[in-house]
């Protein structure tokens, strides 16, 4: 039950929904950047949504299946190809023993997720299978995947289901092209910024810089200026925190953020829009739109019910398949 | 217990106990964290304490209802309302052996020159102080320590080193600390401890916890080399 990594790709790592409960120790959450797509990959395979997946960035890996498997790929479209033929995303697909899965290049989004039926056999460290890249633990040997690595998955007889005749609408196509609207709630230090900067933040576009990574999305645009020079006492941060360093260029903190930070927070991206942020490639233009926390929570609860519905439907389909 | 409460997005509330770095404010942060951990409300996820603030993460999806933020806020107020007296926490004194010699004390002579002290005086000041652990952050197990004597303060290096070995003891401005893992960094390195500050596979993964008192004491290079290592990263 294993997959040979022939080529690691740009940045392929084992992640799950994050290492929760240890931020008080300074241990970052890590985990997938786009939790919606990662959950969906597992749910469509009738796995627990917390199972580990491969997060593949921009240039995907080249994988040889040493055992047959059923996989599901979601997220951004890195153009997956199975034995030379396009592989359908957002649905369970049977991969015969010996076949090769590769990715021909980025078409839409930024990150894709691969789940395998039964789940990857990865030891949990601090309750999670996520790779903590900087501290070098968790996931697969605490690092990104490299040529020659072998990933085990749990014992599961892979049935030749071909490509399932059901799945999700291919959501990758709905990802924005060059402009994205990202919704936010005012941050604790919103009022620290000048009236003009508050207006600019709401009205002007910011561009995603190429040095954005799992730690944060670095943006470039009109400088955001504080009313007066004052320093923030280091306080907790969260995924989606929009912090503004002294250079006035905002950064959206993502999965590998530090637990605390000392830069003022002008806003907080709503949780329901974080998967979208995670799929924005460099040079995308972002416009921020303020909404209320009530609305943000309503959207999040809506997403939760949607995932639950898909879970029920997928479980039913799998019962039919395995009958 | 007096504090302000505000949202940090749709899944975190931030409790603010003051606007300054002080031990008495930080003790409120820790007291609140202790109470919330002992009496978690439905949907509460995890707590992140800092100098004068405490973040409480929760899941609006698990909480459900009309407006989860309002529910979270009132749950937190209910839990913390009754809390008055500072409890005797289980904080401890942690003694940290440090070798202040070559090849580990990369910047101690520079620090001496900067501060106008001899190396012995630097070591003496560094080792005769009780340091209070405000919280852990920046890196796993990294303690933000308060109480360093101003005489040995020195700004960070103008360009950070690419690799600082785990266990390095440094000074940056009026802060002193220990690097738990190998990382790039700009601190002035004055020594190194053989103690492991972070071990992910251990039941108690961190050596020091918020509220603890840290004391450094000097060991020789021979003692350092002979130290029995724990599971190191």
- Quaternary structure type: heterodimer
What integer value in Å does the Rg of chain B equal? 20 Å
Which stretches of chain B of 5+ consecutive residues score pLDDT under 50? none
Number of strands of chain B: 13
The CATH topology of the largest domain in chain B: Cyclophilin
Largest interface here, residues on each chain? Answer: A-B, 44 and 49 residues
Strand order of the largest sheet of chain A: 12-19-16-17-14-13-20
**Average pLDDT rating of chain B:** 92
Question: Strands across the major sheet of chain B, in which order?
Answer: 1-2-4-3
Radius of gyration of chain A: 20 Å
Structure overview:
Chain A: This is Carboxyltransferase domain-containing protein. Chain A: InterPro entries: CT_A_B, Cyclophilin-like_dom_sf, PxpC. Chain A: Pfam families: CT_A_B. Chain A has four helices and 20 strands. In chain A, a hairpin with a 7-residue loop joins strand 16 and strand 17. Chain A has 323 residues and is an alpha+beta fold. The radius of gyration of chain A is 20 Å and the shape is elongated. Chain A is 16% helix and 28% strand. Chain A has a seven-stranded mixed barrel with strand order 12-19-16-17-14-13-20. Chain A has a six-stranded antiparallel β-sheet with strand order 7-6-9-4-1-11, with no helix packed on it. Chain A has two domains: 191 residues, no CATH class; 113 residues, Beta Barrel (Cyclophilin), CATH 2.40.100.10. In chain A, helix 1 packs parallel to helix 4. Chain A starts with a strand and ends with a helix. The longest helix of chain B has 16 residues. By secondary structure, chain B is an alpha+beta fold. Helix content of chain B is 24%, strand content 28%. Chain B has two domains: 78 residues, Gyrase A, domain 2; 134 residues, Cyclophilin, CATH 2.40.100.10. Chain B contains six helices and 13 strands. In chain B, strands 1-2-4-3 form a four-stranded antiparallel β-sheet. A four-stranded mixed β-sheet of chain B has the order 5-13-6-7. Chain B has a three-stranded antiparallel β-sheet with strand order 10-9-12.
């Amino acid at each position: 039950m294993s997959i040979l990594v022939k080529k690691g790709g740009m940045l392929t790592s084992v992640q799950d929904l994050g290492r929760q409960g240890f931020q008080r120790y300074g241990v970052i959450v890590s985990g997938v950047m786009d939790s919606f797509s990662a959950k969906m990959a597992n749910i469509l395979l009738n796995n627990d949504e917390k199972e580990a997946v491969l997060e593949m960035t921009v240039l995907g890996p080249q994988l040889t299946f040493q055992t047959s498997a059923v996989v599901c790929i979601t997220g951004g479209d890195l153009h997956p190809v199975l034995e030379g033929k396009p592989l359908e995303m957002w649905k369970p697909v049977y991969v015969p023993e010996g076949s090769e899965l590769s990715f021909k290049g980025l078409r839409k989004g930024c990150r894709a997720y691969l789940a395998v039926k039964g789940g990857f056999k990865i030891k949990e460290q601090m309750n999670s299978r996520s790779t903590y890249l900087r501290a070098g633990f968790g996931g697969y040997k605490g690092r990104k995947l490299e040529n020659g690595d072998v990933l085990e998955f749990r014992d599961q007889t892979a049935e030749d289901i071909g490509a399932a005749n059901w799945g999700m609408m291919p959501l990758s196509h709905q990802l924005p092209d060059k402009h994205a609207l990202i919704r936010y709630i005012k941050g604790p230090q919103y009022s620290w910024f000048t009236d003009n900067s508050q207006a600019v933040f709401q009205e002007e576009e910011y561009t995603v810089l190429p040095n954005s990574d799992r730690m944060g999305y670095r943006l470039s645009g009109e400088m955001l200026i504080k009313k007066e020079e004052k320093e923030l006492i280091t306080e907790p941060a969260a995924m989606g925190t929009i912090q503004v360093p002294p250079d006035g260029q905002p950064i959206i903190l993502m999965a590998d953020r530090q637990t605390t930070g000392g830069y003022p927070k002008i806003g907080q991206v709503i949780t329901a829009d974080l998967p979208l942020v995670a799929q924005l490639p460099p040079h995308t233009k972002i416009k921020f739109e303020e909404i209320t926390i009530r609305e943000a929570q309503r959207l999040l609860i809506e997403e939760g019910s949607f995932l639950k519905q898909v879970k029920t439907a997928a479980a039913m389909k799998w019962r039919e398949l395995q009958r | 217990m007096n504090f302000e409460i505000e949202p940090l997005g749709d899944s975190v509330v931030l409790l603010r106990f003051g606007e300054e770095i002080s031990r008495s404010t930080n003790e409120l942060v820790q007291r609140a964290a202790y109470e919330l951990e002992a009496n978690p409300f439905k949907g509460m996820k995890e707590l992140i304490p800092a100098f004068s603030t405490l973040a409480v993460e929760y899941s609006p999806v698990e909480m459900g209802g009309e407006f989860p933020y309002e529910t979270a806020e009132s749950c937190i107020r209910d839990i913390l309302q009754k809390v008055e007296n500072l409890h005797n926490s289980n904080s401890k004194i942690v003694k940290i052996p440090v070798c202040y010699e070559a090849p580990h004390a990369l910047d101690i002579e520079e620090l001496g020159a900067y501060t106008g002290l001899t190396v012995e005086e630097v070591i003496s000041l560094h080792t005769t102080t009780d340091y209070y652990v405000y919280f852990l952050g920046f890196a796993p197990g990294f303690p933000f320590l308060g109480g360093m004597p101003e005489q040995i303060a020195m700004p960070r290096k103008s360009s950070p080193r690419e690799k600082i070995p785990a266990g390095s003891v440094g000074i940056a401005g009026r802060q002193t600390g220990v690097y738990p893992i190998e990382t790039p960094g700009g601190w002035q390195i004055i020594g190194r401890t053989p103690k492991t500050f972070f071990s992910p596979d251990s039941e108690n993964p961190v050596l020091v916890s918020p509220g603890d008192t840290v004391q450094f004491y000097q060991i020789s290079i021979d003692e350092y080399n002979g130290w029995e290592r724990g599971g190191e990263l």
